[in-house]
Amino acid sequence: MRRTQAGFSLAEMVVAMAVVAILVGVALPAYQGAREAAYAGAARAAVGESLLKAISHAALTGSEVVLCPGDANGCRASIDWSHGWMAFADLDGDRQRTPNETLLHEQVSLGGDVHLRSTVGRTRLVFQPNGGNAGSNVTFTVCDGRGPAKAVTLVMANDGRLRNGVPTGAAAEACMHPMP
Predict the structure, then answer these.
(1) How far apart are CA 138 and CA 155, in angstroms?
(2) Would you give the DSSP letter of residue 149?
(3) Helix, strand, or coil here: 126?
(4) What average pLDDT does the structure give for the chain?
(5) Contact between 90 and 67 (Cβ < 8 Å)
């Protein structure tokens, strides 16, 4: 009486591994691209939420509100917002948060390979009681691990209106590189 062995032959195993390798090779880049797109979308939404909170508080309370890259401990003098930002009621007008000034919003570092940059020279946004932004328009460039071709801009006019845009090639490329 002869017993048959159950299992895979070496050839079947090699074919199965080749199929799995092809599937992983196709699915992994698609997954990574979708993940980066989701992180970039979350960054744009977070910027919009912060701007809305800052504008609303300034208009409702009649006080100036500062939005800047940094955390509850203070603003950073940088155009790189990727490591988080905060909004606070600037009661004394010095553009620096003190313990008696209300922290309205604090955003933690962005996920994935997302970078967020503001216009050169715009390290702080100051919202006035009329809801407008003091100074010139500000452009935020959002880029991620998918490359400079997928970068977008958020442009905020002085009156608080926000619109989407397309960055220049140089701005998109600069956004891709981490800042010191």
Answers:
(1) 6
(2) G
(3) strand
(4) 90
(5) no
- In angstroms, the Cα distances linking 8 to 3, 23, 137 are 16, 20, 66
* One-letter identity of residue 62: G
Reported residue count of the chain is: 180
3 state DSSP class of 89: strand
Pick the closest to residue 79 from 1, 10, 6, 171 (CA basis). 171
pLDDT in tens, 37-83: 999 999 999 999 999 999 999 999 999 999 999 988 899 999 999 99
Give the N- to C-terminal CA distance of the chain in Å, as an integer: 76
* Coil vs helix vs strand at 146: coil
Burial of 50 (0-12, 13-18, 19+ CB in 10 A): buried
Picking from 110, 129, 105, the residue whose alpha carbon sits closest to that of residue 49 is 105
DSSP assigned state of 11: H
Phi, psi dihedrals of residue 55, rounded to the nearest 5°: -65, -45
Residue 156's nearest CA partner among 65, 42, 62, 44 is: 44
Q: Tokens 């940059």, residue? A: 117
Give the C-alpha separation, 9 to 27, whole Å: 27
